């Protein structure tokens, strides 16, 4: 439908996609105080439990998914309410600027700025400085990982207690990892769309998408450098049973690399951060789904964290697909697998 509307000149695919994903306004919540504010000029929505507490609560910065292109405070309203109610936490949902209108690093900068503001004003929200977590799904998981890495070495702000990464996209070097091959046509995120969104975030357009999908955008020496972190060899064998075949390397195209070389920046692709950064990261929770092109990004980051001595809780939805958390109570329907995933996040939060 979006393509039809675009061809007729009525609106773009992105405008249509935002419309159908916008979410609807919900009424008051009997258990939560909810207010829309701005943190360093970034729009946020703050959820605070109404019940009295024995002491300061944990705090959660939530960055929504949507390929850096879609999503809003309203889209994730039910998810954020659930997290706040069930974990008895103060949740701050961040409305970062979206691509393609606002290219990288706009979304990252907004999330970082909002997080820094919150960490500087925790007392105002009765939040425990020792229990602040960043959390996000899909592109939001990417942003949470990037913010966590940036703050890992900071000495002038409270240290993050944990990072929660829900089927995060963490690299744009290899779109042919086993999970990309196995789930290339599985909703809600097709292989081509993953590259499309990454390019929109980086450049504001999807030029050279085919070359990026084939791997022609990374120089051989750089691919060799990052192979220790981005490689099918680091994926456990049980995840390679379904339809995986070795692919021949494609020829490098220098002019394509020039347009996408920032894919090698950790603030855009956190899987590429140096060990000196990764080993400083807080306790981590990673959720992956079997039927998701981004599954292996999560598995590779899990290995990197563990190799650097960072405690990791991993929850794998064997019957899950990409985006399943965002469909919690969507139009009155919930997937049992998505509810299990959301509850696994709540249980992790309660353990902090």
Jot down its keywords:
352 residues, Rossmann fold, eight-stranded mixed beta sheet, AB_hydrolase_3, hydrolase, carboxylic ester hydrolase activity, AB_hydrolase_fold, GDXG_lipolytic_enzyme
What's the helix and strand layout?
Blueprint: H1 2-7, H2 13-21, E1 32-39, E2 42-49, E3 57-63, H3 77-87, E4 90-94, H4 106-120, E5 127-137, H5 139-152, E6 162-166, H6 178-182, H7 191-203, H8 209-214, H9 220-226, H10 254-260, H11 275-278, E7 283-291, H12 295-307, E8 312-321, H13 336-350
Helix pairs in contact: 3-13, 4-5
Domain Alpha/beta hydrolase fold-3: 60-207, 251-325
Protein name: ADCL4 protein
Family: Belongs to the 'GDXG' lipolytic enzyme family.
| Number of distinct helices | 13
Termini separation = 44 Å
Largest sheet: 8 strands, mixed
Low-confidence parts, pLDDT < 50 over ≥5 residues?
none
Q: Can you say what the CATH homologous superfamily is?
A: Alpha/Beta hydrolase fold, catalytic domain
Question: What fraction of residues sit in β-strands?
Answer: 15-25%
Average pLDDT figure: 94
Q: Give a count of the beta strands, DSSP E runs of length 2 or more.
A: 8
Which range best describes the helical content: under 10%, 10-25%, 25-40%, 40-55%, 55-70% or over 70%?
25-40%
Give the SSE string. Answer: HHEEEHEHEHEHHHHHHEHEH
Q: Which structural class do you get from the secondary structure elements? A: alpha/beta
Strands of the largest sheet, in order across it? Answer: 1-2-4-3-5-6-7-8
Q: How many distinct domains?
A: 1
Give the radius of gyration: 19 Å
CATH class: Alpha Beta
Large-scale geometry: globular
CATH T-level fold name = Rossmann fold
Pfam families: Abhydrolase_3 (PF07859)
GO molecular function: carboxylic ester hydrolase activity
Organism: Donacobius atricapilla
GO cellular component, one term: membrane
């Amino acid at each position: 439908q979006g393509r039809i509307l675009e061809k007729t000149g009525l609106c773009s695919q992105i405008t249509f996609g935002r419309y159908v994903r916008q979410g609807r306004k919900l009424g008051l919540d009997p258990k939560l105080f909810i207010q829309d504010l701005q943190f360093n000029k970034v729009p946020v929505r703050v959820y605070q439990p109404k019940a009295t507490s024995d002491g300061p609560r944990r705090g959660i910065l939530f960055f929504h998914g949507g390929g850096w292109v879609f999503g809003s405070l309203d889209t994730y309203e039910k998810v954020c309410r659930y997290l706040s109610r069930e974990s008895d936490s103060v949740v701050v949902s961040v409305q970062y600027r979206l691509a393609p209108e606002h290219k990288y690093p706009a979304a990252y900068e907004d999330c970082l700025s909002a997080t820094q503001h919150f960490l500087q004003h925790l007392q105002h929200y009765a939040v425990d400085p020792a229990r602040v977590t960043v959390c996000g799904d899909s592109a939001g998981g990417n942003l949470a990982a990037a913010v966590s890495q940036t703050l890992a070495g900071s000495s002038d702000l409270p240290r993050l207690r944990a990072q929660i990464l829900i089927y995060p996209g963490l690299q744009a070097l290899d779109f042919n990892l086993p999970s990309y091959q196995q789930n290339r046509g599985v909703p809600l995120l097709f292989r081509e769309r993953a590259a499309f969104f990454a390019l929109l975030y980086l450049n504001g357009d999807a030029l050279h998408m085919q070359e990026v999908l084939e791997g022609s955008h990374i120089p051989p020496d750089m691919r060799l450098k990052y192979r220790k972190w981005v490689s099918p060899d680091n994926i456990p064998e049980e995840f390679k049973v379904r339809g995986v075949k070795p692919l021949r390397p494609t020829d490098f195209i220098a002019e394509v690399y020039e347009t996408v070389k920032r894919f090698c920046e950790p603030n855009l692709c956190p899987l590429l951060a140096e060990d000196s950064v990764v080993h400083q990261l807080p306790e981590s929770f990673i959720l992956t789904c079997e039927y998701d092109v981004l599954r292996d990004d999560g598995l590779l980051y899990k290995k990197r964290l563990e190799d650097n001595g960072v405690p990791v809780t991993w929850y794998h939805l064997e019957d899950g697909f990409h985006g399943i958390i965002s469909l919690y109570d969507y139009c009155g329907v919930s997937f049992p697998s998505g509810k299990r995933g959301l509850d696994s996040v709540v249980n992790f939060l309660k353990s902090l």
